Amino acid sequence: MNVVRAWIEERLGLRAVTAFLEKKEVPRHKHTFLYYTGSSILLFLGIQIFTGVLLAFYYQPTLAEANASVVRIMTEMPLGWLVRSVHSWSATFMIALVFVHLLGIAFTKAYRKPREATWLTGVLLMGLSLAFGFTGYLLPWDELSLAATKVGTNLPKALPVIGTWLTQVMRAGEDVTGDTLSRFFTVHVSVLPLAVLAILGMHLFLVQRHGMSVPLEEERRKVKGPVLPFWPNFAFREAGVWLVLLGLLLTIAVLSAPGIGPQADLMAPAPEGIQPEWYFLFMFQTLKLFPARVLGLNGELVAVLIMMAGMAALLLLPFIDNRPFERKGKVITLLAWAGLAYALGMSIWSLL
Amino acid sequence: MKLPSSLFSRRAFLNGLIGGWLAALGAAFIGPLLKYIVPPTREPDQVSVPLEEFKDLAPHTVKGFSWGNKPGLLKKTEEGEYIAFVGVCTHLDCNVAFVAEQRRFYCACHEGWYDENGLNVAGPPPAPLRRLAVSIEGDALIIKKRV
Amino acid sequence: MNGRRRVMATVGILALGSLLAAGVLEARVQEATQPSVKPGPAAAPGQETSAAPRPAKERMAVYVLLAWVWFSIAVLLGVLRMRVREADRVHRMGLSRAAGKAPKGPGH
């Protein structure tokens, strides 16, 4: 065994990586539990890739076969329904954790200098995760997913100049068709995974480069606070967290497996009760509430612009909140709480 | 029997236990995973074709039918009996064709030849064409796997 | 190995073995249910295929698998806790900090 290890070490020189992991320290304070959120997202991403590949073994991304192939996976393939259920629930877990991770970083102001780039890549990753959810939702090609996609791809139309073109890029034409399905499938299994891997690499590199951020009170202390070595102390704790998360995922996947509706009919009227996935509910509700015209402008345009402004504010938060622990920072924290309350409130309202 | 000192450290023991148990947990999933990756075989146990279509088959001619995902070949003998083959070459799985003038089956992939009873006579095929059992039930021909 | 550890090891091996057996049995159940018609809601075209139609025998096997998963997670959490306590104990001893201060042997 040691011979093999020596052989690998001579050629790959991984000693540098393991030495770094042994030296890496994780600060201990009352917010240490937040450090688990990032790696947990990675766990679920891994599960998505694994179950996604398994699903792609039998899924057929064409207009005629998509729905039927999913039904086949669920009824004919051994435990196919479980593979699909895990994939679906793991998406929810992952995006929920992305939000928790984002909130943890935002409220502890961990995006402050020098970690602005880490924040930027992180927000990009959140966008990519939501894109994964949006493109994946169409693939079963049932009534609900077709309707949700029609609504979702209609949104860019509100933008001036590029809006219609953008919608046509997403839909591969004017309308949602079989070409849209192929496009969404390719984006879901090739484009987004490659993009996520590239940006995740940057994000992880930056995190290791700057080390774990600590709350300001810790930073201001003269004496260095207590730490845990990453390996093995923190890593084994993390393994425990992962195991519990896996157990929860498997349990809910077994007890609450998703079904599939009848095949989408491009000519049929929209079904009752269309809804996007939960992470888009607050946007969905906001759009529903906006009046048709606001101050003489198209209501939908105003809504889309406001949403884009919100996303920009989120992206540029480290530069907006550049004095996070003074009064400016406290105001922005309050606004963040308000934003969160809005998102939660809107989501719950849309379900009533 | 009590040893004067431990054979291995507490750390190594615990590491081993963790690794071993994780492996066992994973192993519980390997069986179902393999079943999923290799789907259940789709070759049917039997196939039924209407007798009408094959009633007027002349001897030494061949007509095709569907044997699951593979081509089946039905032939009538001089005595009027039906014989059926799975029309797949026993060499490397290419589909074979019946050459009526020669009364032989031909596989174009590597120029394999079978006589009209399915026996491999020339080229690389190592075994005769697989036979299937044919029986007549009412107005249908039942073609089954040979036991 | 003292008595307590021996007991732990025996229990561990027994549980490991049964976990493997459960997995093998599960796989066999999957195979057995394939050729037969699945007793579950059959989807008429145009009707909704309800959530995860699956045969009754398979359902039992999956619940068994779930129970085993939780059991082994509990065991693993126990062992991990031991390992973490070991790692924390070693860290508190300060071996890594002491490594730099250790005097070099003769000949250096």
Blueprint (SSEs and pairs):
The complex is a heterotrimer of chains A (352), B (147) and C (108).
Chain A: H1 2-12, H2 15-23, E1 25-27, H3 35-58, H4 66-75, H5 80-107, H6 116-138, H7 143-154, H8 163-171, H9 178-210, H10 216-220, E2 227-229, H11 230-255, H12 281-289, E3 293-294, E4 297-298, H13 299-315, H14 317-320, H15 327-351
Chain B: H1 10-37, E1 46-50, H2 52-55, E2 62-67, E3 70-76, E4 82-86, E5 97-99, E6 104-107, E7 112-115, E8 120-122, E9 131-137, E10 140-145
Antiparallel strand pairs in B: 1-10, 2-3, 3-4, 4-9, 5-6, 6-7, 7-8, 9-10
Chain C: H1 3-33, H2 56-93, H3 95-101
Quick one: how many beta strands of chain A? 4
Question: What's the story with the biggest beta sheet of chain C?
Answer: none
Summing up helix and strand content along with how strands pair, one would put the structural category of chain C as mainly alpha
The helicity of chain C comes to over 70%
Share of helix among residues of chain A? 55-70%
Portion in strands of chain A: under 5%
- Main interface by residue count: A-C, 30 and 33 residues
- End-to-end separation of chain C: 39 Å
Q: pLDDT under 50 segments of chain C (min length 5)?
A: 26-46
Number of domains of chain C: 1
User: What would CATH call the homologous superfamily of the domain at 29-210 and 221-258 in chain A?
Assistant: Cytochrome Bc1 Complex, Chain C
Spatial gap, N to C terminus of chain A: 61 Å
Element-by-element helix/strand order of chain C: HHH
